[in-house]
């Protein structure tokens, strides 16, 4: 590929391949109910693909995942302007966010765990952010077919931090068409509706009776056909769901994605309060791994804090201060049913 590529493989033959550029996962080979392996994430064949990428395929995202309105926020009385790269807004850390930089990678093996520690230091002023931020992501694959991301960060000045992994999943295989026949469950009774530029309005809206009610398994295609102004604004789903978690539960089930054809199931557990669901409406015509992806070719399920939190005091805090450490854990559990 012309870049540093790494492979994690467990005793069942499940493999996760990633590159140092963007910490991007380029393939995940997982078994179906017959034991047949398929690559279930969208991606590219070459480094050039990732360098030119505008879809954030498989990448680590920071400093701030998702949108910040107008690329502006005020912190401790000081106004800050970050890169505007998504209409009027800042998205996913800016033009040279964590998805467009080389990460340091240190592979390791422990008892039943195959992993790598990825690290990156973002200097003060990077894309307009205050303070130097040192980030590490421990990526591990277990023999239970669990792929985990353990995020950690420290800063020398107050700065917004929101980290995620931006994989697009098609459990039938990345080249198998679209995900409209997948069944999606989201453990969320509320979501954050957005304005015309996809910035949350500040409301936490009940999902009951809407296209956003995935508390019981629902076909993505059926939900996309819902008559909902929010779907029209985004051309599909590009929304943050407020995860329901039991009191005291650190790692909560956020979502379950199931492909009835192959039997593959993906469960996502996280310490994060939100889940961005992006249904891939802008993917049509993107040339990936030996295939041109259609609209809705994959669904991104990004664990996160809420979009635009630096400007919305009612949302959970995303400001990391010196002396405080940021930690977050997300687990992708693959199985068949």
Question: Concise description?
Answer:
By secondary structure, the protein is mainly beta. The protein has a single domain, classed as Beta-galactosidase, Chain A, domain 5 (Distorted Sandwich), CATH 2.70.98.10. Helices cover 5% and strands 42% of the residues.
Topology, number of strands: 29
The CATH topology comes to Beta-galactosidase, Chain A, domain 5
Q: What is the arithmetic mean of pLDDT?
A: 97
Helix fraction, binned, reads under 10%
Count the domains: 1
C-alpha-based Rg, rounded? 19 Å
- Give the end-to-end Cα distance, rounded to a whole number of Å: 34 Å
Structure description:
- By secondary structure, this protein is mostly beta strands.
- It has a single domain, classed as Beta-galactosidase, Chain A, domain 5, CATH 2.70.98.
- Helices cover 5% and strands 42% of the residues.
- The strands form 8 sheets. A 9-stranded antiparallel β-sheet has the order 10-11-12-13-29-23-22-17-20. A 6-stranded antiparallel β-sheet has the order 16-27-24-21-18-19, with no helix packed on it.
- Strand 25 and strand 26 (292-293) form a beta hairpin.
- The mean pLDDT is 97.
